[in-house]
Amino acid sequence: xxxxxxxxxxxxxxxxxxxxxxxxxxxxxxxxxxxxxxxxxxxxxxxxxxxxxxxxxxxxxxxxxxxxxxxxxxxxxxxxxxxxxxxxxxxxxxxxxxxxxxxxxx
Length: 106
Fold this sequence. Notes:
globular
């Protein structure tokens, strides 16, 4: 393990400072389909809520002169589907999956 990049989160050591941001690779399963890119310490899943959410109506992405804005609305299948279907599939990921949990109320 390279000491220059070694860090610990939740008692787990990582040897890379790179985490794939929430939503950029869904629940990480896309990495298995398209091939894993070396160097990422972990994948942070898209947001998961207690109940399924359809998210916002289109358009969800708008281009501005300063860049892109998105407002997906936390579309996700809900925690039961994530636990029963997606997490078992993610067990074969070449790096850890950190599940992003989102609340529905304050």
